[in-house]
Amino acid sequence: MVFPRLAEYISHLSNELAHISPERKAALTKLSRYISQEMDSQKEIPLIFICTHNSRRSHMGQIWAQVFAWQYGIPLATFSGGTEATAFNPNAIAALIDVGLDIRTQDTSANPHYRVQVGPEHIIKEVFSKKFGDSPNPTSGFGAIMTCTDADEACPFVPGAKARFSLPYEDPKRFDGTDLQAKMYAGRSRQIAAEMKYVMDQVGKG
Fold first, then answer.
1. Between vectors from CA 151 to CA 149 and to CA 154, what angle results, nearest 5°?
2. How far is it, in rounded angstroms, from Cα 36 to Cα 192?
3. Among 32, 46, 87, which Cα is nearest to 203's?
4. Which of 20, 55, 62, 67 has its CA 20 to 30 A from that of 32?
5. What is the per-residue pLDDT across 138-184, written as a single tens digit (0 to 9) for each?
6. pLDDT computed for residue 154 by the predictor
7. CB 70 within 8 A of CB 81
8. 122-139 tens-digit pLDDT
9. Is residue 42 over pLDDT 70?
10. Cα separation of 135 and 164, whole Å?
């Protein structure tokens, strides 16, 4: 069960599925097929969402994929990482909190560790910026989802990955400090949420 405000937000995501292009659905279906195949061979399926700085899109991917995996009862363990480490961006955090996720930290370091709560029983205990090969990320047997063009091009081969998927998203960073900042972060989060819902829905139907 998820928090009521988050549940309401999720209920409206079905409207977004009609806007996913056939080309994009084809890419997402490759990921859903991989997850379905892995469900036959192991208990927990690790996925790492990768972008350059592990600050925005990869965290959104990690969190939304885990939300829908829990909702559909799919045994996923989601992670995120970058080609370099920075920090989970406050604008991305704000966009996720705004739709009903509970994101908290008592860490005052330059790279805080966050606790993300989806509902009373579902918590992602440690969300922070790291390189994709750093702990606690798995080092082998995982699916790698490339969420930005730069990381996609820089890492044509991801060491330890069992499979690799190209799902780049436009970076909301370029709207930082503008009047469109909140709108663009909300839109990117919504796109990623809708696409992860589509992926898990396909797995559920499989």
1. 105
2. 20
3. 32
4. 55
5. 999 999 999 999 888 888 889 999 999 999 999 999 999 999 999 99
6. 81
7. no
8. 999 999 999 999 999 999
9. no
10. 20
Would you say 54 and 81 are in contact if contact means Cβ atoms under 8 Å apart? yes
Q: Quick check: helix, strand or coil at residue 48?
A: strand
Residue 170 and residue 188 in contact, taking contact as beta carbons nearer than 8 Å: yes
Q: Residue 18: what pLDDT? A: 87
What's at 99, amino acid-wise?
Answer: V
Say which residues have a Cβ less than 8 Å from residue 57's Cβ, sequence separation at least 6. Answer: 49, 51, 147, 148, 169, 171, 188, 192
Whether residue 192 has pLDDT greater than 90: yes
What distance in Å separates the CA atoms of residue 32 and residue 165, rounded to the nearest whole number? Answer: 11
CA dihedral 116, 118, 123, 129 (to 10 degrees): -30
CA geometry: angle 7, 8, 13, nearest 5 deg: 95
**β-strands 122-127, 142-146: how paired?**
unpaired
Residue 100's region, left for phi above 0, alpha for psi from -120 to 50, else beta, is: left
Closest CA to 126 of 77, 90, 171: 77
Query: Tokens representing 20?
Result: 């996913």
Question: Quick check: 145 and 61 in contact, CB under 8 A?
Answer: yes
Q: Say whether 27 sits in a helix, a strand or coil.
A: helix
